[in-house]
Amino acid sequence: MQVLDREQREFAERAEEVAADFAGEAYTWRGDMPWENMETLADADLLCPSVSAEYGGQGVSDVAAMLVTEAVGRVCPDTGWFTYMQSMVAPRAIDLFGSETVKEQYLPDVTAGEGHVSIAISEPEAGSDVGSMTTEVTEENGDLVCNGEKTWVGGVPFSDAAVTWVRFPEGLGSIVLDLTDPGVEVEQEYTNMAGYSQTHFTIDDVAVPESHVLTRGEKAFKEQLVSLNWERLGSSVLTTAWAVAGLETALEYSAEREQFGRPIGAFQGIEWKLAEMYRQIETAASTVYSSAAGASEQGSHSAPHRLQTSVAKLHCSAMAERVVSEAVQIVGARAYQRGHPLEYLYRLTRGRRIAAGTDEMQRNTIARSLKEDGVPAVSER
User: Fold this and answer.
1) Element (H, E) at 166
2) What's the pLDDT tens digit per position in 52-74?
């Protein structure tokens, strides 16, 4: 892949050097927060690089955050996941749309690798259909009050707050909800297939300071899409990193494992598998980085185009599952055992076809964009 400029390549190389130190404990975290690794990234100025410099970031493009996510995710899948979540999801939304008060309250801890902020969108009756959300913020005696419930929220045990999508009287918006506030109650903790904790919590008459409102009014949903589309590109590059980890594991094993008097990697059937796995990874990486590059050139408040974002998310999620599945096939019975890195990678990659927008929603978005705008011209690519 040669879509990065010189400065970006140097940034990626620095991230790779730091990430190499995570190899020793990779695949041991299993959903736990790798605080030591997050602090190491922060010390190297690699955590949350697109967050504004005054709050501990570097103020560079979101492409830099993607490069760190990929470099780290290839070595340590769990650290890659938390890097993505903190560099490209909730904290980035706070940086883009938050008040000075809320930025100062939460971002310095996150960029120092000492804090975590979750994202809360789904509800028991509102997943892909965000228009059906019932969690609301109303005005009572001049104050803002939030009531509702959220589910499938990741990272709550490690989080100080959650960027929470809500409904205001005038439409959808978002707030920063302090999870320690009276009235926020954890109802249930789920453990998903990858071993990660997901939380269902209720919100009962929780006061919301004006300073904690991120998006509200006519532009609210459009602003939310800016952060949501970057989140989807972050998810795309994370799954690409996991696919690379799967390919590297299979490649190493195929060079060492001998059957019928020679390494299995010498058989054309395995060679073709490896070649096809790399073809899919390379195509995915080019898709996601080219989508990000166009938006970054337009400024920090610009969102990647919805068509490109959905194509990247759909393609990368499905690609990663296929590639890791083929890696399992190459390694065979060992990879099918609980505790093997490929067994864990497969469970991780399967979840990304649901999280950050399901395959089906991406197809809907792609079709809607084509019907409304037509097929992009050459000059629009």
Assistant:
1) strand 161-168
2) 999 999 999 899 999 999 999 99
Strands 117-120 and 171-178: unpaired
Maximum Cα–Cα distance for the chain, whole Å? 81
Residue 171 belongs to what H/E stretch? strand 171-178
User: What burial class does residue 132 get, using C-beta atoms within 10 Å of its C-beta: 0-12 exposed, 13-18 middle, 19+ buried?
Assistant: exposed
Token pair listed for 34: 């790798």
Burial of 149 (0-12, 13-18, 19+ CB in 10 A): middle
Q: Tell me the β-bridge partners of 191.
A: 197
Query: Do residues 58 and 45 touch, judged by C-beta distance below 8 A?
Result: yes
Domains and CATH numbers, the chain: 6-115 (1.10.540.10), 118-215 (2.40.110.10), 220-380 (1.20.140.10)
Where residue 293 falls among pLDDT bands split at 50, 70, 90?
confident
Give tens-digit pLDDT for 82-115.
Answer: 999 999 999 999 999 999 999 999 999 999 999 9
Q: How confident is the model at residue 221 (pLDDT cuts 50, 70, 90)?
A: confident
Burial 38-58 (b: 16+ CB within 10 A, else e): bebbbeebbbbbbbbeebbbb
